[in-house]
Amino acid sequence: MPKRIMQGTVVSDKNDKTVVVKIERRFTHPVMKKVVRQSKRYKAHDETNACKVGDFVFIQESAPISKDKRWVVIENQTQALAAKAG
Description:
By secondary structure, the chain is mainly β. The chain has a single domain (5-85), classed as CATH 2.40.50.140. The protein has one helix at residues 77-85, and strands at 5-12, 18-28, 35-45, 56-61, 71-76. It is globular. The mean pLDDT is 94.
């Protein structure tokens, strides 16, 4: 079974080698037919401590790394765009 990949924004980088990523999803409410926004926060492993608050990152499922971490940062889109522009 393939590993899930999600995209979100880093909201905290205070822990060593860990970032907290906020994933937001939108869906239509089944009864009210209104678009609803729902967000969830995931702790992801960042080996090099490269991600900063506000960065747009891609995270991928992995085997448990610690009690709360089950995701790994695979790409920092903000740094990739900065490298391309500079």
